[in-house]
Amino acid sequence: xxxxxxxxxxxxxxxxxxxxxxxxxxxxxxxxxxxxxxxxxxxxxxxxxxxxxxxxxxxxxxxxxxxxxxxxxxxxxxxxxxxxxxxxxxxxxxxxxxxxxxxxxxxxxxxxxxxxxxxxxxxxxxxxxxxxxxxxxxxxxxxxxxxxxxxxxxxxxxxxxxxxxxxxxxxxxxxxxxxxxxxxxxxxxxxxxxxxxxxxxxxxxxxxxxxxxxxxxxxxxxxxxxxxxxxxxxxxxxxxxxxxxxxxxxxxxxxxxxxxxxxxxxxxxxxxxxxxxxxxxxxxxxxxxxxxxxxxxxxxxxxxxxxxx
Length: 309
Known about the structure:
Layout: E1 8-12, H1 19-30, E2 33-36, H2 55-60, E3 63-64, H3 77-93, E4 98-101, H4 105-112, E5 115-116, H5 124-137, H6 139-149, H7 151-156, H8 162-175, H9 179-182, E6 184-185, E7 192-198, H10 202-218, H11 221-229, H12 235-238, H13 248-251, H14 257-280, E8 286-289, H15 295-308
Parallel strand pairs: 1-4, 1-7, 2-3, 2-4, 7-8
Antiparallel strand pairs: 5-6
Helix pairs in contact: 1-15, 3-4, 5-6, 5-8, 6-8, 10-14
């Protein structure tokens, strides 16, 4: 029987820290379900490169927000919240715990911190025009266009984060007011216990990232990437996804697989650093160093926090 505890457990942190393994242990202990909070595992077919829970792992606990759509369009934060929120609401209503697990900080904030995201439908022609503008004039020129519309958001976004810059311009133009003004914050709808995993030793983290990538290659990542890139309509999403975009020159026979490996490891490590910076701003997170504590010790401490929450 599910435990009568309606706490929502947010399990977050950088890539390659063991979030999936811990989420499964917690789900089995709490007899509850898992909501994936990842901007890449929402896509069907992107399995190996995203380290999506395997079919065997998914049998251990019910998972939500995996394989939501094909990678032929971008999935917005507002869409994620719209689909995930009713699942949490039902769990809380039934006094069941739920686990929100993943490394996409904006998804977690939108779902668990009461962030209201403007529901502006994607406008493909506008996106195409903005991408063409950036291809011709550069990302800096595109970023300046956002700055003219919304200096607050422009200051927050990297010049090279083209996807989010375009989305902010899109919302500002179609929504009729700056993106930063369109976002509101309400009282968080759920009681959330935040747990975070991280590596204290960055070199160990880099080595684990390297080892996981090598295992992904053994599991068939190259074939997965080639199959996905074979469908032209998927390219926009794939060209912005770590462990996929790096294969473009390899598919074109311009580089060797070793070159792809080096770039994937580098980009995964850079992603981990960005994720850590994002989550460090959340002072509610109870952090566990995975290179200082055993998995059993982390699980024990996590359960204790849940029982006391």
